[in-house]
Queue: 4 jobs
Job 1
Amino acid sequence: MYMKADPDAAWEKLRASRANPPGKAGGGARRKTYAASLEQAEQMFRAAAVVGPATRPLQVFYGLSQAGRAIAAAAVDLKGEDWRLDGHGIKAGGFDKPFADIEIRTDAATSRGSFVRLSQLLDSPVWGRDPVRLEDVWDMLPVNLEYPLTDRNRHPALYTNDVSIHDDPHPLLHVPVCDIPDWVIDDGSRETANAFFAKYPGLAQHHEYVRRTPRPDGPPDFTRYNHGGGELRVSWLLPQGNALVEERREHLRGLTRSHGRSRWFLPAIPPTGREPHLLMAWWSVVYTLSMLARYEPAGWAGLISVDSNHHAVPVESLLKRAIDFLPGLIVATVEEVSG
């Protein structure tokens, strides 16, 4: 699903917020941190836009890290000194493994590290010593839909929207679930679709697959795309019974994560059974790339060689899109925590 991004507009909005900072960033040390961190974040992202992939992940990650400090400074739910972040709170290793199998771990839930503290703030999981494969988080980023790292069966971010929700009050939420992979559609069975949906907390408790023909016991009624993959209309039975449009939209927001103006069903982080906030999914991937570039420069140079490595173009694309999409996601996250 194509998403538009306007990073200049996002940075303009963040710069404008510094004269009257949101949430808890209205005064004192939190205000100073909010302003200084956003200035550094913007400069890092601007620098990333004019360098090549050899160093780009370093500027992108540290720009995101500084934006995280501004998010924490503005957060109304972080009291006392809890807004102060200390260290990364996330680790990457296994750089001797294939690229898709690089391992990501987090600090314990008691850590003050940026990743842990922000994950808790955003109701996003941390997983401690249990490793998560890079590929599992890579596939959660909507911008990576066209760039698989391996030929394994994928569980990508699945786009949805609320444009088909109408005014008539009834007890069901119906929405399309888009970008379902070919391997699910090719199998065609209800059992495979159910097992696939079980990986997504927002989809696991669905009520039924909406059909175009009156065969409730039939296989899922997928709509195929010409370019591969497809979609399926899905329904949920609302706990409050008959619901108006805004109530059904609110229920959908509770099942999905936002990326810009779009809504996405995300799979769970394997050890936790919970889906991440998209900012933290981005954080995991960009951090890992930055550590690979910083501590394994020869390996990184080989990875981004478009003449010899099939991962080079997907990595280049990811880093370009990070510069485009992350500023808007930062804006949305600041608004989320400061309201």
Note: The mean pLDDT is 94.
Job 2
Amino acid sequence: MSKNTQKQQLIDKIVEAIQDTKGEDIKIFDLSKIENSVAETFIICSGNSNTQVNAIAGNIEKKVRNEVKERPWHVEGTDNAMWILMDYVSVVVHVFQRQIRDYYEIEELWGDAKITAIEDSL
């Protein structure tokens, strides 16, 4: 399996896991063309409470571990679950509570990236 196929599989599983736990406003940022970027891909989503943010992150970790056989290299933010960051090296996931995401305007920081918005599943 090529590196790109593996990465796409990882991205698909992460998005699926977010949708399973009703994560909202999912965006995929392709940072591969941006110099000195910390990862090739960012996936950002929102939850409505620290309970939901934790549930989304937990589901991502479980689904990716079980179906793609990958574990995050680093996870932070689980203590207060306002903003959980999960680092899978080429893909970094940010799970925000909505007001924290609005406050940091993370989309503005990576305005040069190619951004794909995922429709909320009904």
Note: The mean pLDDT is 93.
Job 3
Amino acid sequence: MSGTALAAGVVVVAATLSLGLTAVGGAAATAQRAAGAADAAALAAADAASGAVATGEAPCVVAARVAQASRSELVSCTLDALTATGEVRSAYSGLVAVARARAGPPNS
């Protein structure tokens, strides 16, 4: 009887560890997705502001579309001449990852 209880305990511990590691892995992936989306959104806004990308939309609108394509939400977008700064938020199972990025010409 004690062997069965030990085996059941091992299974419960293994299942708990698996769920915990899955949550940590998902949160880490979400943080990386947010960072990538912030980089891409800031670059898109800077390119639109400089005219490197021809678009009829405002730079921050382009940045919002790029963030949305990465399953993220653009929280803020500011332009200082040709330098764009964007903040992006991504969610995973109730956890929120926020990332910021800045893009523009060199030495700006």
Note: The mean pLDDT is 88.
Job 4
Amino acid sequence: MFRRNRADREFREAQRAGQAVLGMHTELPLPDFPGPDAAPAHATPESTVVPDFLPADFRAPSRQDVSGFMMRWDLPLVIDGEVHQCHCDAYRNWIVFNMRDDSVWLRCEAGHEAKESRLDTAWYNRNSGPVDHFHATLDEGLRHLGR
């Protein structure tokens, strides 16, 4: 019983100390920031300013810079509890495209393509790996994936 009381008392004291620290930060005076018309207090030479981002050669394209992403899906594709099948009876070895407009398209081995409205970008992101190559054309991407 005494141990629990002591532990409770220590916990309450720690809470009070934490509240005091938080209260202290709200009472600190805010620094005076210059207005938008004020000149800077000290100007730094342009030669010492180092950019905070990578050069263009080292940056990966963003999602808006590419038309879409593609990946292989060799297993049967199960959507809403049933195996998805193309009209040519193909049910595996898909190429899955995730386009810039967040639509998902499927392409079978025979080259038939269809938009799959039951899949979305979140599904694609959960099931795809990291991007390993960027291709200038669709044909180059398909060749890279073995089609």
Note: The first strand starts at residue 68 and ends at 73.
